[in-house]
């Protein structure tokens, strides 16, 4: 009887423990077992973090197996585990990259390597890592055009610019891809497709850590600052945490140190930077709840919609704003309109008799009570318009 009650007690304790856990441990899954073995063979030891599925917005991430304090080392990933341009140059692609003119960019070299290794399948030494990478991404560049069209105009414009850039990258790289034909039995045109490049580009854009590498003649002059960090890249973003992250020259490892606490069995977060949700969606394919850096962007077209069309100085005002870089990054934040937005609206609201004071406006001076009132009226109208427009789009969704 005693033994029976003991088992019941243990069951109750386990149930209580499970209910306090934020995520479900996934380290027993075959892909993570293989990844951890692969990393261990390259010198990685980890006893703090476990892959897990978390409820809510984050999904897959890393769980702490013990409480973390500020100053604790979260993870230390040896250089042998990192995928960089040095990895690419030491592969069979290296010789082709070194002789190709004009030189490819470091980004393109990494994209090419990822596509080639994914195509190699079982033969790729990077397969355990490739197997845990997302098969698809949720960045706007991967969306259908009719979905992109629902985005606010400033974000839609940037998403389309990004898509055009990837398309241009693909077209300009076709000849280089063809030069790799001796390495493959299949036609390179069927391997290095647009969708393959889009996947590789998103992998690098969403998952690399910053790591500066020396400039090499075989690459273009674009910065060589990327490193794919297996396992470490399972850490999700939170705008409310702080970490110290850098490559340690002494230990030859990429290290992340906690600057805040994390409870046992809680999800361990890092911060990708003080990004607003537009930037997070554009670059990483997600938004952060209760993001303190949240902003709503105002396009130049929206500004002009609420200003008198008969204003004879309208063209000159726009020219001044453009010359002084006051037509971009105009936002509303948690505390209202940004200084840049108010400054642009103050200048556009100047009366004909006040226009000579435009320099004072750009410096933040108050020109007149009338100008102040006009500015606030237009700001309020724009705010209402953006709120109504958002509601309209949400109904469409």
UniProtKB/TrEMBL annotation:
InterPro entries from the xrefs? Rubisco_LSMT_subst-bd, SET_dom, SET_dom_sf, SET_MeTrfase, SETD3_SETD6_MTase, SETD4_SET
A Pfam family the protein falls into: SET
Where is there biased composition of kind Basic residues?
A: 1-17
Q: By its UniProt entry, which SUPFAM superfamilies does this protein fall under? A: SET domain
List each copy of the SET domain by range: 42-273
Show the segment(s) annotated as Disordered.
1-20
A single Gene Ontology MF term assigned here is: protein-lysine N-methyltransferase activity
Q: Identify this protein by name.
A: SETD4 protein
Q: Which organism is it from?
A: Onychorhynchus coronatus (Royal flycatcher)
């Amino acid at each position: 009887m005693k033994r029976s009650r003991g088992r019941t007690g243990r069951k109750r304790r386990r149930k209580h423990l499970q209910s306090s856990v934020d995520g479900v441990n996934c380290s027993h899954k075959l892909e993570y077992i293989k990844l951890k073995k692969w990393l261990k063979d390259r010198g990685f030891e980890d006893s703090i973090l476990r892959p897990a599925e978390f409820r809510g917005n984050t999904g897959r991430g890393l769980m702490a197996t013990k409480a973390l304090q500020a100053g604790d080392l979260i993870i230390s990933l040896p250089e042998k585990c990192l995928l960089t341009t040095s990895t690419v140059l030491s592969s069979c692609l290296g010789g082709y990259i070194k002789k190709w003119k004009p030189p490819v960019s470091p980004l393109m070299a990494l994209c090419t390597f990822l596509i080639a290794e994914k195509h190699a399948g079982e033969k790729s030494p990077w397969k355990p890592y490739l197997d845990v990478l997302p098969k698809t991404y949720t960045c706007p560049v991967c969306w259908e055009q009719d979905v992109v069209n629902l985005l606010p105009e400033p974000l839609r414009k940037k998403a389309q610019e990004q898509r055009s850039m990837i398309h241009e990258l693909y077209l300009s790289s076709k000849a280089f891809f063809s030069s790799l034909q001796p390495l493959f039995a299949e036609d390179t045109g069927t391997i290095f497709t647009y969708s393959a490049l889009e996947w590789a580009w998103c992998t690098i854009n969403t998952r690399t850590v910053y790591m500066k590498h020396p400039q090499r003649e075989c690459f273009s002059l674009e910065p060589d600052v990327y490193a794919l960090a297996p396992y470490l890249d399972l850490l999700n973003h939170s705008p409310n945490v702080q970490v110290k992250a850098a490559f340690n020259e002494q230990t030859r490892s990429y290290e992340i140190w906690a600057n805040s606490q994390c409870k046992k069995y809680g999800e361990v977060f890092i911060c990708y930077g003080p990004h607003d949700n537009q930037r997070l969606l554009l670059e990483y394919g997600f938004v952060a709840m209760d993001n303190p850096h949240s902003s709503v962007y105002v396009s130049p077209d929206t500004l002009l919609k609420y200003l008198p069309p008969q204003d004879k100085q309208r063209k000159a005002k726009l020219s001044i704003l453009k010359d002084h870089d006051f037509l971009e990054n105009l936002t509303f934040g948690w505390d209202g309109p940004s200084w840049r937005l108010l400054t642009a609206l103050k200048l556009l609201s100047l009366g004909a008799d006040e226009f000579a004071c435009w320099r004072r406006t750009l410096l933040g001076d108050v020109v007149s009570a009338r100008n102040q009132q006009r500015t606030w009226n237009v700001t309020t109208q724009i705010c209402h318009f953006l709120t109504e427009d958002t509601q309209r789009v949400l109904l469409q969704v």
